[in-house]
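[Meeting: bench + compute handoff]

Bench side (C.D.) handed over the final construct sequence. Compute side (W.E.) agreed to return the predicted structure before the next meeting so the bench team could plan truncations. Sequence as handed over:
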Amino acid sequence: MAPGDASQSVRREIAGASIADLAHAHGTPLYVYDAEIIRQRCRDLAAWDTIRFAQKACSNLAVLDLVRRAGVVVDAVSAGEIHRALAAGYPAHAPVAAASATDLPPAHPIVYTADIFDRDSLDAVARLGLHVNCGSADMLEQLAERVPGAAVTLRVNPGFGHGHSQKTNTGGEGSKHGIWHEEIPEVLRRAEWAGLSVSGLHMHIGSGADLAHLAEVAGSLERVAHEIGRSLTTISAGGGLPVPYKPEEVRADLGGYFTLWDATRKRLEDRFGHRIRLEIEPGRYLTAEAGFVVTEIRAVKRQGGRKYLLVDAGFNTLARPVLYGSYHPMSLCPAGDSPTACEEVAVGGPLCESGDIFTQADGGFVTTRPLPAAAVGDLLVIEIAGAYGFVMASNYNSKPLPAEVLVDGGHGRLVRARQSVADLVRGETV
């Protein structure tokens, strides 16, 4: 951004839909998703045999339906996510087709991936006969009791991890996720004793990991695959594909990443003598850049030498900045003419909580951002908010959850109604 130039931080439309009109129709704060960006991100990964969406990133039914229509299958980490997948049109099982020696094994439409079975999820898996990606060895006997003879995937912790925050690191001793790589021989014995076969292998080291660390997973997975042997029919590279949040960040080399994993797959096919399905499990990559939070500026104030814009969205709306110190680009949708100059401002929300700041660094330190000069009534747009945004929203301070709108072809469609104050106390008694 040129010094004093506000034009690059003014936004009046999202995917051809007027931001002001969307806010007027649906209120603020408001989540808005660009359907075409999600479709494009699905196309980006078309080289992989299977794209399995980690729906915990953005689980609105309309988003799930959109990726399903794009040929993407889904991952579920709870009984609730299993229900969402079914409600969005996913079948419990892939259609049965005549197989030949050159066919890949069918992709499971829904895979339950977790480190435990709570009782509801185990009931759902058993009732529907869903495939399970086991992150703890104790899950094997629990599944075998309910679904004798099942085939399972093992999620393995390779002993290292990486990510944009320690809180999103899913590998190494500091992570609860996955079966420790050194315990695989014992886990395979437990699976055999339980009467289960191991057909899949999955590794995931963290959300937002850089490509170099993601590539290390391929070598670790190949070594574990040799221990499991010919029963393997599917390998998963996991997720964690980064997206650029800051201007200086660059896109991952997706072609190079696929080539590396495809080579791993081919070596395993040569070793085992049969085809192997290659999966990738993106979450944020499919939806992050498609999502926007539209929020209204309700106060402009100075605290000593620092200027604050206070908006009607808080960390109850978007938690990533307070949880991880995450950076989100911001732009202004002014009520009137576009401002001509920028100023350094901090942006905060309405909550009775000192940490309710959108411009903060890891550790909770308040920072500022150059934004066009703003006034009460202008709209602020928080960008790249489509992953781990609404799904992590809460009713803290008894704030209703926002509405969600999907914009497709320039038309915005309400895909979740705003929660009412009556909804806040539904189910409570005095």
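W.E. noted at the follow-up: Confidence is low (pLDDT under 50) at residues 161-170. C.D. will use this when planning the next construct.
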